[in-house]
Amino acid sequence: MKSHCLTPPSTVTKEISYEELKALVGKSPKLILIDVRSEEEVAKGHIPGSINIPLSTVEGALKMDPDEFKVRYGVTKPQLDAPELVFHCQIGKRGAMATTKAHELGYVNARNYAGAYSEWSKKEGK
């Protein structure tokens, strides 16, 4: 178990592993996977089913009216208690920042895929 002695519990980012995410991708209708990388990064490859919401726009997106979110991103806006809300980026840092922001906005189950796209692409052979 990781030690978070110096970090207050409210700032500890919940994480999901490659294996846990792999079990959900394409199988769980509840999975909301948000890729916070730039459009240019996403164009080079992405995790299937992910929605691109660049980090600089995450807070605004999560504060959007549900109808506006649906029009903008093509999916239903996650509920505050969405059970499988996962953020990721290229190496983990931006995904952690987005997850922290989501927690601050009340998304209690938000998690960061810390392995990020770099781990996914290596394990998936892409």
TrEMBL record:
Gene Ontology BP annotations: sulfide oxidation, using sulfide:quinone oxidoreductase
Protein name according to UniProt: Thiosulfate sulfurtransferase like domain containing 1
Pfam families listed in its UniProt record: Rhodanese
Active site as annotated: C89 (cysteine persulfide intermediate)
SMART domains (UniProt xref): RHOD
GO cellular component: cytoplasm
GO molecular-function terms, A-Z: thiosulfate-thiol sulfurtransferase activity
